[in-house]
Amino acid sequence: MALAANKNRLAAAATCIGARSSTPQDSDRVNDRSTGNFILDDQIAHLLRRAHQRASASFATALSHHRLTPAQFFALARLREIGQVSQNRLGRLSAMDPATIQGVIKRLGERGYIERLPDPNDRRRMILRLTPAGEQLVDELHDAVATATRRILAPLSAEEQEQLRSLLKRIA
Question: Of 35, 57, 135, 156, which one's alpha carbon is 20 to 30 angstroms from that of 142?
Fold first, then answer.
């Protein structure tokens, strides 16, 4: 149910955002730059938010037929990269707060994509790892995720794409 609501919200955001042409034209702006007034469309936080909405909508579409959210896919993909890890560390490596990663892990576990094992060095802690079904799912989604990424970056040249990736890594 929540996934459907999230999917609908992301689809609406994608419709509203569209491609680069959705940015207001200079003639649409209320304030002129020369007056020193605040221009929302020039603010980095606003631009990053819009880019995030567009990227989230693209990823949600790519993952929708598997009933996965982008956060769930990112957790699975990170586990595929690093192997077994504690829930806390997976959350940090996937840029999710403890409450979010807990819900993500719970849902992925219920669907049989990850399993929890006792940590042999600390009985209070659980170690997470992908199940064979989880590994297969990540492998199956590779092409869909790559296509979503290409769609997001389509307005940019190859050089601009690499520059964007490099700059985002520096500030993320």
Answer: 156
